[in-house]
Amino acid sequence: MSQPLTPETIDNAIAAFCLKGSPLDTRPYGNGHINDTFLVTYDDAGTKQKYILQRMNHSIFKEPRALMENVANVTAFLQKKISERGGDPARETLSVIKTKNGENYFEDSLHNFWRVFPFIDNTFCLEKVENSRDFYDCAVAFGDFQRQLADYPAGTLHETIPRFHYTPSRFQDFKKAVADDPLGRAASVQPEIDFALAREADTHVLTDLLEKGELPLRVTHNDTKLNNILFDNDTRKALCIIDLDTVMPGLSLYDFGDSIRTGASTGAEDETDLSKIELDLSLFETFTEGFLKGCAGSLTPLEIKMLPMGAKLMTYECGIRFLADHLSGDVYFKIHRENHNLDRARTQFKLVADMEKKWKEMAEIVTRLSL
């Protein structure tokens, strides 16, 4: 991803795909940090056709072929499900545009990997929860994603980032960062290190249940932030799940937990005033209600019971990743100020601690809503 993109490189990539009409305009689009994204407009007999062109970041996603096989297969499966229930597959899920050689992606002479999706018009994304109704609709959409893919053979999917939410592995990475301590930062963050080490037993709770066959392996999105859903401009309803790069085998609890981590906190992920950080139980209840509605009975009783653990564990896992990156010299997560990753880790740990204080209430909410 280091080589700069030239107009010629971009035009050559566009020309590799089966797009209708003649090109009118290409411009950078969105604010994503992983892939390079462009909005491409074509003129098709007087009608404007829009497409999303992306150069995939193969320094993060090291197997772009496998990634695109996942995306193509899952979206084709979803399109069939949506059509069967009378929905609009062109708007309710992504569609992969093939190259002129019939491939799901194009590799250029510089070994850039490109893909194209039709642009879904008349939609918008939310960067944060603006009201409880939006959060509820978000929850229904992610739950419905689980329901529609409940009979997809999850084991046939590739791991696009190996052990992405395998918390025991993340914990070992964290311990290594503490031991290596290349910048000598560990001594100044000992309370945070101690907090993380004290919860080692939590790290393998879910993976143990999976390995014993007590939790089912499912197709999971693994990055269920609010801004990975398109909302319809006219109805303001959640319409389409996007950013499918991390779709792979996992646990439904990962998707639930990451949404709670990002959407039910009372403060920003990098808030420096920790007094502003806690779990909003009202938003936790809102999301749980919507998620269970979207799942529509597709979750097992144990999955439902473990929803609070999913929320706690995804928050804790993100915290140790931020702290490990701080100790290692901020090599993975982008920072915009000194100690940025440390601030992020502290908010996650404060949220974990607040969940522990509210554990009984969280469990009671889940039990009541699942009856």
Low-pLDDT residue intervals, each spanning 5 or more residues: none
Specify the biggest β-sheet: 5 strands, antiparallel
Biggest sheet, strands in spatial order?
1-2-3-5-4
Characterize the overall form. globular
Compute the number of helices. Answer: 13
Summarize the helix and strand pattern as letters: HEEEHHEEEHHHHEEEEHHHHHH
Q: If you average the pLDDT, what whole number results?
A: 95
Query: What fraction of the residues are assigned to beta strands by DSSP?
Result: 5-15%
Distance from first to last alpha carbon:
50 Å
DSSP strand count: 10
Relative helix content: 40-55%
Rg: 21 Å
**Structural class by sheet pairing and helices:** alpha+beta
Index terms:
10 strands; 13 helices; 371 residues; globular; alpha+beta; three-stranded antiparallel sheet
Structural account:
- The mean pLDDT is 95.
- Strand 4 and strand 5 form a beta hairpin.
- With 371 residues, the protein is of the alpha+beta class.
- It has a 5-stranded antiparallel sheet, with no helix packed on it. A 3-stranded antiparallel sheet has the order 6-8-9.
- Helices cover 44% and strands 13% of the residues.
- Helix 5 (167-180) runs parallel beside helix 11, helix 8 (252-263) crosses helix 11 (307-328) and helix 11 (307-328) runs antiparallel to helix 12.
- The protein has helices at 7-15, 64-84, 89-92, 132-148, 167-180, 190-197, 205-211, 252-263, 281-295, 301-305, 307-328, 340-357, 359-370, and strands at residues 22-28, 36-44, 47-56, 106-107, 113-118, 123-124, 218-220, 229-232, 238-241, 248-250.
